[in-house]
Specification:
0% of the residues lie in helices and 61% in strands. It has no helices and 5 strands.
């Protein structure tokens, strides 16, 4: 699940986002195929902020 919320100011969207997932892609080493692995509940939620601008 992904959720965005934010403000539109001066043609920019300043947003906070949240991703909730009970699995993550994990590879043993760089260049090897990744597999889905369950994550602990405290790692299931990721949050951050971004500014989105319209490109022409």
């Amino acid at each position: 699940m992904v959720s965005y919320t934010g403000l539109l100011r001066d043609q920019k969207m300043e947003a906070a986002w949240f991703v909730v997932s009970d699995k993550a892609l994990v590879a043993a080493r760089e260049g090897e195929a990744a597999a889905l692995k369950p994550v602990n509940w405290w790692r299931a939620v990721t949050t951050s902020v971004d500014t989105f601008e319209r490109s022409t």
